[in-house]
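Subject: Interface between my chains keeps coming out wrong

I've been trying for a while to get a sensible model of this assembly. When I model each chain on its own everything looks fine, but I need the whole thing in one frame so I can look at the contacts. Pasting all components below, labels as-is. Any help appreciated, I'm running out of ideas.
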Amino acid sequence: MLVQVAIDLALDRLFTYEVPEALEKKLAVGQLLSVPFGHREARGFAIEVAAASAAGGLTAQSPARPSRPSCRSSQKPCRLKPIAAIVDETPFFSPNLLTLVKKVAAYTAAPLETVLRTALPAAVLKKNARPRELLFVEPIDQEGTRHETGDVRGSPRQRELYAHIRRLGGGWMAQLCRELKTTPASIRLLAEKGLVTISVRAKRRSPLGNRRILPSKPLPLNAEQLAARDAIFADARPTLLFGVTGSGKTEVYLQAIARELDAGRGAIVMVPEISLTPQTVQRFAARFGDRVAVLHSALSDGERYDEWHRIRAGTARVVVGPRSAVWAPVKDLGLIVVDEEHETSYKQDETPRYHARDVAVLRGVIEGARVVLGSATPSLESWHNAQCGKYRLATMRCRAGAGTLPDVHLVEMRDGSIYSPELLDAIRLRLDRHEQTILFLNRRGYSRQVVCEACGHVIECPDCGLPYTYHQADDCLRCHVCGGWTARPAICPACHAPALEYRGVGTQRAEAALKKCFPRASILRMDADSTSRKHTHDDILDAFRRQEADVLLGTQMIAKGLDFPNVTLVGVLNADSSINMPDFRAVERSFQLFAQVAGRAGRAELPGEVFIQSHEIESPVLRAVVRGDFAAFATDELKARAEGFFPPYCHLAMINLKSKDLKLVGEWAAMCAASLAKCPGLNVTDALPSALEKAEGWYRWQVMVRAKSAAAIVKAWRWFVSARPAPTALRVTLDVDAFSLT
Ligand code: ADP
Ligand code: ZN
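Reply #2:
Try treating it as a single job with all components included. I did that and got this:
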């Protein structure tokens, strides 16, 4: 018997070993093995097991990628080394998860080992101290609530104690004694009466901080919610749950999960890291208690170890976490929820560059699990899939609970001023009423496009309709899609004013201007510059929450996950700067941003107002934002995507090259573009310096590749890198379905 082993060296190949007869019966794929490697021992995962043929090769189906024996010579049959030991007999990867890992490795052109490492938190393999064992008290549920109403024998105090324990749903002995001001002896008496059980349990190092969470009951669903829940279980297709903010999507998730749990299956809930707040986690823990495991980046090794092992053991049936939760080893997976599915943080920006939403859909197919993608502003990829029937669409238009959506006003920017009179009046009113204001100015430093400060005109490529990017090195404007270029004009082509600017107004200038208007107002500014040191981010937000400032002025980093009850005014200072980013997703992101922003104002009792300033108030995106009409926006934008051959009508990959050697990176990029352009079915742009031409001493170039299938791009890429291995002074990476074009 032979086994192919993935060893964590990022060599992008598997190694074949012999299985000693004594281990044959115990060996299974997904196990962690110890194998001889060179002169040392290495750890690796069993990927494929097969009977040895006479020739010493594998008789199994062809593996994911070529495999060579673990000895140098691959010419003559050689003796394979045997594996040393099985480190842990319980596999770390189920066969289904291994299939998923292989597919993601193939799709993203990443080494299998790297995907394995991503799928399994490093802490899980560390030899941590055993979890502590403590006494746990659990009430015994005896025919409804009979015991609460006085049937319990014993003193009134004991009855009261039992009622409290029931209400809390049990707990750790020590914690109960503290909270209920009682003694272990009293609780033991209840155990003797058969009202509670006391058992020894491993006290997990819980990310919830062993906080007590009161159980919550399912709410009666409204008609839209019922229809959405039924859609999830209607057929095997993923469901796109398109519901406005506050429409009660979470309640739908909760009840869909409950149904899976009742059927003995588990669930994964993915939430963007930034929204993974204690409040979010508590909503799941309140419904499902101990069956919830939380995975997120801030966990200690111990917490992560415990949570992961609870999931693998099947004690935890519901996993809540960010992108990486898609790999959680949930047994009998029944449902995967991807909340805020449009969020770009689901795409990993290092190898393997996977998109967790897409991996979730793939995992759903492999495991036969339902998949729900929820959003108030779905990605156009998912929306397109719903329109063409690949996904099922469920729509929720009404708010389920309290709260109203704010009024949104569009204000035309006329002269070069940063603040319109309308917005200034609105701010003044808030200052008088001691309410708070949030102002957005989306100005990223490196997008050096050319904007007319007088009329707002942005200079665009006539062929692609996307803004040109200014390149200082050769003092010209370039299109990052078609590679076209033009000389830098001296005056604005639209209004002929000599007022062309390379960046326009940034947050610092906006802050200074506001101070001039309202000298006594206190203003907090938040952007990449003001938050470079750690924690400053939270410090600023906390100060604003404590109402220590009247105005919070910042970039899009303040758009998400904020909920300030005293904010009744939100202003977008320059909508155009976000719409006109040189990125085909700029319009989509702007819509999402403005819709998010609009959701910020007036969450509580105070009604809210939103002002969006723009030079082009007739633009269809802004009109759609005001009407809250996502469908109209999506239809419009999809048409433009189809015409420009952009996703979702193609797959788009970026090849990013960087080197400290400017000449090398430019030449290599050109050679790469020329080679790939010869491959049939690929649409390859010219090699170009990235918009961010130089970062941390590295010169950066890029080549954009588009094709009908992602596999075609990966195939061409593999051919290219094996034919032309990059010199060590050069880093070349492929980003399939890229989100970052810079
Ligand atoms: P979303 O996830 O779509 O933004 P939430 O699930 O957070 O919306 O729900 C918004 C509010 O509406 C919450 O306070 C929730 O408790 C409440 N809610 C949800 N469903 C119902 C329902 N069926 N009946 C009453 N209130 C509901
Ligand atoms: Zn162009």
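Reply #3:
Confirming on my end. The chain has 22 helices and 32 strands.
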